[in-house]
Design goal:
By secondary structure, this protein is α/β, with parallel strands linked by helices. The chain folds into two domains: about 20-230 and about 395-410, Rossmann fold; about 245-395, Glycogen Phosphorylase B (Rossmann fold). The chain contains 15 helices and twelve strands. It has helices at about 30-45, 65, 80-85, 95-105, 105-125, 135-140, 175-190, 260-270, 280-290, 300-310, 320-325, 340-350, 365-375, 380-395, 400-410, and strands at about 20-25, 50-55, 70-75, 125-130, 145-150, 205-210, 245-250, 275, 295, 310-315, 330-335, 355. The strands form two sheets. Strands 3-2-1-4-5-6 form a six-stranded parallel sheet, sandwiched between helices. A six-stranded parallel sheet has the order 9-8-7-10-11-12, with helices on both faces. Helix 5 packs across helix 7. Residues about 1-15 have low confidence and may be disordered.
C-alpha cells in the first residue's frame, strides 16, 4: 500500500489557559501574598498569568512569579486615594464600605466597570481570580468563570438577602441598601448588563474561597461551604521559649497610635522589644533604636516571631493574627478598621488576646502598662498554647486548593 502524499494532521496542541489575578481594595501585604502563592501553583500547572492589582510594586515580593506574568494597573476606587486602602472606617456593612469608596455614585461604578471591560478585553483571560476585587467580579459576571478569594470579611456570601451590620457601634447601614442597589443597577443598565435582584449578588462568583479560621469569620453561620484555611508566609511555627514583645504595624499606621512611645517605655523598663514598623519616620525610628529596641527593616516570618517573642502586638490583620493562633502566641490587638475590630473581638472571645479601648486620650504610659500586664498574663498565654494544636490541625495547602478550583473551572 502506498503511503499517503501528506502526513496526517497532528492534533492541535491545547492552548495554555490564561488566568487574571485581580486585587482592588485593602492596603496590607496579605492581599498580594495570597495571589502570589496561588500564582506559583498556577504556573506549575502550565497556565499563563496576568496580574491587575492596586499596587503593582507590591508584586516585588514574588519577583519570579511577576517576571513570568503580565502586570497591569487595576482600576482605582476613588475612595482609596484619600484613605490609605480602605475608606473612612465608618462602614457598618460590606455595602457601606463599597459605597464609601465610590459605589454610592453610579458614574464611579460605571467608570470602574468600563475600565475593567477594557482590561479584560486586553488580557483575554479564561478565568478571573478576584482578591478583594468586587468591581472585577461584577465586570466578569456572566462572562467568565470567577473565583472570589480573600478573608471572611471580604468574601461575603452572595446568597444573603442583604448585608448584615457588623460595625460594633452601629445598628443600621450608613447607606440605604435599596438605594445602593438602584445605583448599582443604573450603572449596569447603562452598560447593557442584567441588573441585580439584591445587593449581595455583587459578590457572586462561581467559587468563593474565604481564607479564614471559622472562629474569625463574621459570616460563619451563613456560609454554605466551609472556608479554606488562612494563607501564611511560611509555617506559623510554635511559641514557647520567646521573651518580650514583638510589634508589627503596617506601613504608615504606627505614627497614628501612641504605640511608638509605649514601646520605648517598655524597653526602658527592661522588657525585650522587637518591631517591624514600615514607614516609621526617622526621628521615631531613632528613638526606638536608642531605647534598645531591635527594629527590623524587613518583614519577619511568623515562625520567627513565635520563636523570639512571648507577646505579639499588632492591629488585627487576619494573616498575622491567624498565624499567632496556630503558633499559640498571645496578643495585644489595636484595631484600626471594622474588619480588624471584628478579628480582635473574636480573638478576645477566644481568650488569647487583650484589646485595649484606644481613644484620643490614651497615653503612651497607659498603653505600656497594658502591654506589660498582657506579657505577664499567664492565663492568656496558657489559653493560646492550649488552642494552637486545633488551629494547626486545620491548616492545608490553600493556594493549591484555589489553583485546583481554577483548573477545574476552565477544563
Amino acid at each position: 500500500m502506498s503511503s499517503p502524499p501528506f502526513p496526517a494532521a497532528a492534533e492541535p496542541a491545547a492552548r495554555p489557559a490564561r488566568i487574571l489575578l485581580a486585587w482592588e481594595i485593602g492596603a496590607n501585604r496579605g492581599h498580594v501574598a495570597k495571589l502570589g502563592a496561588v500564582a506559583r501553583c498556577l504556573l506549575e500547572r502550565g497556565h499563563r498569568l496576568s496580574f491587575a492589582v492596586q499596587q503593582p510594586d507590591a508584586l516585588r515580593a514574588f519577583r519570579a512569579v511577576a517576571a513570568a506574568s503580565e502586570i497591569r494597573q487595576a482600576p482605582i476606587w476613588p475612595g482609596l486615594l484619600g484613605h490609605a486602602g480602605w475608606g473612612t472606617g465608618g462602614a457598618a456593612t460590606y455595602g457601606d464600605l463599597l459605597a464609601d469608596l465610590g459605589m454610592a455614585d453610579s458614574g464611579v461604578l460605571e467608570y470602574l466597570l468600563r475600565a475593567w471591560d477594557r482590561l479584560l478585553a486586553d488580557a483575554a483571560p479564561d478565568l478571573v481570580i478576584a482578591e478583594f476585587a468586587p468591581a472585577a467580579l461584577l465586570a466578569a459576571r456572566g462572562r467568565l468563570p470567577t473565583i472570589a478569594l480573600g478573608t471572611g470579611y471580604t468574601v461575603p456570601p452572595a446568597h444573603l438577602p442583604r448585608f448584615p451590620v457588623f460595625h460594633p457601634d452601629a445598628t443600621a447601614p450608613v447607606f440605604d441598601e435599596e438605594a445602593l442597589l438602584q445605583v448599582v443597577n443604573h450603572a449596569l443598565r447603562r452598560l447593557l448588563r442584567a441588573p441585580l435582584d439584591r445587593l449581595p449578588r455583587l459578590a457572586e462568583a462561581d467559587i468563593a474561597c474565604p481564607a479564614v479560621f471559622a472562629e474569625l469569620d463574621p459570616y460563619a453561620v451563613q456560609r454554605l461551604a466551609p472556608p479554606v484555611s488562612p494563607f501564611f508566609d511560611g509555617a506559623p511555627g510554635s511559641a514557647g521559649a520567646g521573651q518580650g514583645v514583638f510589634a508589627y504595624v503596617p506601613r504608615g499606621r504606627a505614627g497614628t497610635l501612641p504605640l511608638v512611645e509605649a514601646l520605648a517605655l517598655l524597653a526602658e523598663r527592661g522588657v525585650p522589644v522587637a518591631a517591624f514598623l514600615p514607614g516609621l519616620a526617622r526621628p521615631e525610628a531613632a528613638r526606638l533604636v536608642a531605647a534598645g529596641i531591635a527594629l527590623h527593616e524587613k518583614p519577619v516570618p511568623p515562625a520567627a516571631i513565635a520563636a523570639r517573642a512571648a507577646l505579639l502586638v499588632t492591629l488585627g490583620g487576619l494573616g498575622l493574627l491567624s498565624a499567632a493562633l496556630a503558633a499559640g502566641l498571645p496578643m495585644v490587638l489595636l484595631p484600626t478598621d471594622v474588619e480588624k475590630r471584628l478579628n480582635a473581638a473574636a480573638a478576645a472571645r477566644l481568650g488569647v488576646a487583650d484589646v485595649p479601648e484606644m481613644t484620643g486620650e490614651t497615653t503612651a504610659a497607659a498603653l505600656a502598662d497594658r502591654l506589660q500586664a498582657a506579657l505577664g498574663d499567664g492565663a492568656m498565654t496558657a489559653r493560646a498554647r492550649a488552642l494552637a494544636p486545633d488551629f494547626t490541625g486545620r491548616l492545608a495547602d490553600s493556594a493549591g486548593i484555589v489553583a485546583a478550583h481554577a483548573t477545574a473551572l476552565i477544563s
